Amino acid sequence: MTISGRVWKYGDNVDTDVIIPARYLNLSEPQELARHCLEDLDPGFVGAVRPGDIIVAGTNFGCGSSREHAPLAIKGAGVSCVVAESFARIFFRNAINIGLPILECPAAARATAAGQHLEIDLGAGTIRNLETGETFQANPYPPFMLELIAAGGLIEYTRRRLAAGQGAR
């Protein structure tokens, strides 16, 4: 699975309260949440983000509360992947559960600037900066995780497996 898109760059400790402010936690639909994604950190994000864009950040991305709303807002905004130096553990799990690809790659996160374009091969774990030509290596996704992401998350992945008579893994 290959992803490519324009980079939105953020720093360290981007917490769930700035990804989706608490005042919008009464919303649950990804498209509704997307209208407020990162509005307190980057007011121009919602109006300028395009489907396929990629967020690149520093350490501890998604720290703070354990709300699933944060990765839902990012995915709903059309972001195709988040690359960071590191992720908060619960954000990492929530992102995978809803089918939002994320990659930990400190070298790529540090070497990438806003507005550049990345090409990411999730199966190989490669991140290529199309402006600089640099290639970085993250941990690749195993085949079942690629299936989970392609399905749109854990719930749909499980539904499909059960419907096919395969059972849950």
Describe, in plain words, how this protein is organized in 3D:
The structure is a single chain. With 169 residues, this protein is of the alpha/beta class. The chain contains 8 helices and 7 strands, in the order βαααβαβαβαβββαα. The protein has a 7-stranded mixed sheet with strand order 4-3-2-1-5-6-7. Strand 2, helix 4 and strand 3 form a beta-alpha-beta unit. The protein is globular. The model has no long low-confidence stretch (mean pLDDT 94).
Keyword list:
about 170 residues
Indicate the structural class.
alpha/beta
The number of helical elements comes to: 8
Mean pLDDT: 94
Weakly predicted, low-confidence segments? none
Describe the sheet with the most strands.
Answer: 7 strands, mixed
Strand content bin: 15-25%
Total beta strands? 7
Broad shape: globular
Distance between the ends = 21 Å
Can you give the helix content as a percent range?
A: 25-40%
As laid out across the biggest beta sheet, the strand order is 4-3-2-1-5-6-7
Cα-atom Rg, whole angstroms?
15 Å
